[in-house]
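Bench log, entry 3. Co-assembly request; chain sequences pasted below exactly as received.
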Amino acid sequence: MEITMKKSISYTLMAAVALMAASALFSSCEKVSPTGVLIGNTSVDDRVKQSLVNFSVAEVAWDKYLADTIQEYSFLVGSDSHITLDPGRLEEMLEIGMEHDDLFFCHLGDLADTKAEYYNNTEIAIEDATDEWMDKYLEPLLKEDGEIYQDTTLFYDPRTDCIYRKDEHNIFPTALPFYPVVGNHDITHNGWALFSRLFKTSFYEFTVRVICDNDTAYDRFIFLDSANGTLGSYQIDEIENGFFQRDNKKIRNTFTFTHTNIFRPSLNEFASTYCREELYYILDKLADWNTTIAFWGHVHAWDERDFGGVHHITMPSMNFVDHPNGGDDLLVRITVKKDGSYKMERVGLHSKQRTKEELVEQGYTVP
Amino acid sequence: MHIIKRLTLSILLLTATAVTSMAQYYSGSHTFDGENKNEVSMSLTTGKNIITGPCIGNTVHYRHYFDEHWSVDGGANLQYSKGLYGFKAKGQYHLKIKSFHMFASGEYMFNHYHSYNTNENVGNLSVRFERGYWDITLGGSFIGYNMMGDHYTEPVTLTFGAHATLRPRTNKWNVGLLFRNYDDFYYENWNINWGLDFYYRFNPTWKLFGEFNVRPAGSMSQLASKYETTGKVGVIYRWK
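Structure output for the full assembly:
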């Protein structure tokens, strides 16, 4: 008996040493959080609580951004850019969108891997695109008598009849209509601090006002936080308490965006999907919302299918590692027509990764 | 993919370490004891799930051993607050290879998720290797579900499980540590359950068993998050 107990203790110790060795192995990779396989170090509940505070403060200003009469519009969707030092693919996406006059941009998470310099460079890319976007689309806001407002932070978008205040975008730091959700790689190693400095919410929505049957209606855009592989109890409570029904708007189309996928494109996709009850809960909820298209990321692979009356699109990644030479189908553009129907087209990205020297020359952070 | 390679390598290293460090103990807790051909187990599970809130339910299993090699198993699951009802049938072949026990099994499981009017059909083929202090399970799950008039069959999912105990299986009592992506009535994708289990054997026919099971979401996203935590306690009775 004594020998058995001693052996048990020695085996337990050996197993502990093996686990420590494995942890050290995992820790050598900056993208990996070894303990996160069993216990994550960031909570979706905390993020959603913080997001809701930021959203509620900004909601009035926020809703006017796109809530104006638009006959036909398009938006561009990308996923899993995994920006490291070179944010080139994100820049290319934003350029393509502006060239096409897309109304806004959506990103399905894993925007950048979790390092400060990666987010610094992401911020530079977004600020540059903001300047370009404002130059192209915005005009100084005029008073009724035709004079320019003294407040030079106010701008007017004649396309949407929207007023923008450049320095007071409570959710996002810029006027650029770039709407991301958070992905697991955005927040590994407590990366929420980096992500939330740029994008202050992971759970939000906005609407685009349209005319439907000679009446005002809205297309709703819902952004859900599933970076932890679950919506979490707090977010689910908010959904169940009617977060997306609180304004009683007449909804024409609903589009949802989140990171973790439902459908696995093939058997060698090793990413976590939702646990069983939650998977069915989400599919059921999407049907409840009469969702037109549900967008998913995370698995870096394309999948398109109809299920439960919802069109599901799982997006490929747009990063340099998976697609060093780019591809003709890394983004999706949805054009919503006047009658509420939509057209989908796949859009290519072809930029090449820049060298560190080139990035330094162009003002990016390179350690 | 780099992460997957590292993870696979590490799991292999861990497994190899565990295999080489294990003692030479006979297990046989899942085999025909030569006398009692019938076995029934009943358990009560309670806990909390982020979708359904507090949950409580019962499971019952019956197993019949034909001989030292073949057995069949049937079970039913009633999760009251989840609105989840299921049953399963399993056939198992046991083979002793030197000091290893190998169990090859085929299983069919049906679950009805009442809240979402969803029917789930699961097939599973697995092989379990068992020794005195540990067992490892590997296999594949075939999961399909019907809801809202549509059907989806998931690509084959790897089934994996590892279990190590503090004492040899022949002991009267035991405490174990488990890692796996399945439980009695579900097979998950890449989400790793972990927890502790125990048993106390009163005599050759009666055994008390229990389990504390943490079922996280997002394991392979390296952000495992609270999804479900349950405790289970039950009894096993064997007879001729």
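Chain A touches chain B through 64 residues (CB under 8 Å). Chain A has a mean pLDDT of 84.
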